[in-house]
UniProtKB/TrEMBL annotation, chain A:
Annotated membrane topology: Multi-pass membrane protein
Protein name: ABC transporter permease
Cross-referenced PANTHER family: ALIPHATIC SULFONATES TRANSPORT PERMEASE PROTEIN SSUC-RELATED (PTHR30151:SF38), ALKANE SULFONATE ABC TRANSPORTER-RELATED, MEMBRANE SUBUNIT (PTHR30151)
Domain ABC transmembrane type-1 as annotated: residue spans: 72-256
Keyword Cell membrane included in the entry's annotation: yes
Keyword Nuclease: no
From TrEMBL, chain B:
ABC transporter domain segment(s): 9-223
Keyword annotations from UniProtKB, A to Z: ATP-binding, Cell membrane, Membrane, Nucleotide-binding, Translocase, Transport
InterPro entries for the chain: AAA+_ATPase, ABC_transporter-like_ATP-bd, ABC_transporter-like_CS, ABC_transporter_ATP-bind, P-loop_NTPase
GO-annotated molecular function: ATP binding; ATP hydrolysis activity
Domain of life: Bacteria
Stated name of the protein: ABC transporter ATP-binding protein
């Protein structure tokens, strides 16, 4: 009897068919690159009127000019500051509400309803009230972002908390964990996957609400820069803003995913 | 015979009901310190319900009766039930402060020295169950409750776990209540085997070497409702 030491290539490949396959280096850039290529081809062939949409290279040179004059940096800084402040208030708020609501039935009874109502109301519908209450200054803009950010954090953290296996709760009871240790060892790590998923939505949501806030009576920020460009019909500047928003959203998401992969290294899932 | 002072566990007239179904029916049970008791029974006979009552995990189940158990009780479940986000050593000393050194010793006892920093998912099923054993024994329990702890393991691993459990129990001397559906496992490990049927103890066998195990095995199988050559 002979043993076959080398497995035929085809057999090896067939065994993998149900898994997504090996990780692709910089895989998250493939899709965006394709879009960029399509845009370039359309501009070169004249399929795309520059008055309607400027070519990618025009956007690049415009961006270079904006950087040279310092306008881009100033506006970017103002926008980033708003987003960071909004996240700084929104994330703890969402996490705290999710913890209270997830750990006690009374907390859920009090908190969950209003949050779901807030979720159902479009953000723009709240703007008139917020402007009346807070004016049109930075406070209003940060509040708009924070109110947008806390919802996905709350929803996903709460869901993560509630889906912690009850067997682990039982285990915590048998080894006599106290309330504090239970939260630290079981609840928080158990809800972390949900929280991080919420974070991914939160960072992209933050940029979304930033646009809403900045297009209304702003004198700094990327949104202001774009709104001004609209007045003068500068599609290239508008595009610089759009690309910037896109890049910021993309990189924030990639950042959270990086944290996710490190923080959840104990998980062996399809993402592997 | 057990005297009052020798008794570690006392259960009297224990009744547990799920809706209209009576799972435990006025059950009496005593276990001495250091005694290894195996609890056999068919599915639905109330084995796990009794174990959960002793572990204090049935606060939401209706019933009455007296349960006296020592303060230090450890539970081993059928699944290893390790927190997947805690490393192996942290799982062992879960809820214990400054017990890392003892935890390491305990892991060495179950043959897992050097795996302290591993994640539970990186271990095999048998290894995970050994971590669960270490987690139970590091607490120096006076009573070890085990709910079919080897039920999910393959036959070879199970035999190895039997040897390990016997050795550990001899070293730490807790009383053990092992719930199982495997007659041979019960005979291999226990000092006394109980058969639970319809929420009552239907048969009892002592394994003090006086009788042949084939005879005991046959009687236990009969008590479980298995007759002749048929085996479940």
């Amino acid at each position: 009897m002979t043993l076959v030491a080398t497995r035929p290539e085809a057999a090896v490949r067939r065994r993998r068919r149900l898994r997504p396959g090996p990780r692709i280096t910089l895989g998250f850039l493939v899709g965006p690159s394709l879009l960029l290529a399509l845009w370039s081809v359309a501009s070169v062939t004249g399929l795309l009127d520059p008055r309607f949409l400027s070519a990618p290279w025009t956007v690049v040179t415009t961006a270079a000019e904006l950087i040279e004059s310092g306008r881009l940096q100033d506006n970017l800084l103002a926008s980033v500051r708003r987003v960071l402040l909004g996240l700084a208030f929104g994330i703890p708020l969402g996490t705290l509400l999710a913890l209270v609501s997830g750990l006690s039935r009374w907390g859920e009874a009090v908190i969950d309803g209003p949050v779901q109502i807030k979720r159902a109301v479009p953000a723009l519908a709240l703007m008139p009230l917020l402007i009346l209450w807070l004016g049109i200054g930075e406070g209003m803009k940060v509040t708009v972002i924070a109110l947008g950010v806390f919802v996905p954090i709350y929803v996903h953290t709460h869901n993560g908390l509630r889906s912690i296996d009850s067997r682990y709760v039982e285990l915590a009871e048998t080894v006599g964990l106290g309330r504090g240790a239970f939260v630290r060892k079981v609840v928080l790590p158990g809800a972390l996957p949900g929280f991080l998923l919420g974070m991914r939505f939160a960072v992209t949501t933050a940029w979304l609400y930033l646009v809403v806030a900045e297009l209304i009576n702003s004198t700094t920020g990327i949104g202001y820069m774009m709104d001004l460009a609209r007045t003068y019909g500068q599609t290239d500047v508008i595009l610089v803003g759009i690309v910037l928003y896109g890049l910021l959203g993309l990189f924030s998401d990639a950042g959270v995913r990086l944290v996710e992969r490190r923080a959840l290294s104990w998980r062996r899932t399809l993402a592997g | 015979m057990a005297t009052d002072t020798r008794r570690l566990i006392r259960v009297e007239a224990l009744t547990r009901r799920y809706g209209a179904r009576t799972i435990l029916d006025a059950l009496d049970l005593e276990i001495e310190p250091g005694e290894f008791v195996a609890l056999l029974g068919q599915s639905g006979s109330g084995k796990s319900t009794l174990l959960r009552a002793l572990a204090g995990l049935d606060g939401d189940v209706a019933g009455d009766g007296l349960v006296e158990v020592p303060a230090q009780v450890s539970v081993v479940f059928q699944d290893a039930r390790l927190l997947p986000w805690q490393r192996v050593l942290d799982n062992v000393v879960l809820g214990l402060d400054g017990a890392a050194a003892r935890g390491r010793e305990s892991l060495a006892e179950v043959g897992l020295a050097g795996r302290e920093r591993a994640w539970p998912n990186e271990l095999s099923g048998g290894e995970q169950q050994r971590v669960a054993l270490a987690r139970s024994l590091v607490r120096e329990p006076r009573l070890l409750l085990a709910d079919e702890p080897f039920g999910a393991l393959d036959a070879l691993t199970r035999v190895k776990m039997h040897v390990l459990l016997r050795r550990l129990v001899e070293q730490h001397r807790p009383a053990v209540l092992l719930v199982t559906h495997d007659v041979d496992e019960a005979i291999a490990l226990a000092d006394r085997v109980l058969v639970l049927d319809h929420g009552r103890i239907a048969a009892e066998q002592r394994l003090d070497g006086g009788r042949r195990t084939t005879e005991i095995r046959a009687e236990l199988l009969r008590a479980l409702g298995v007759t002749g050559e048929e085996r479940t």
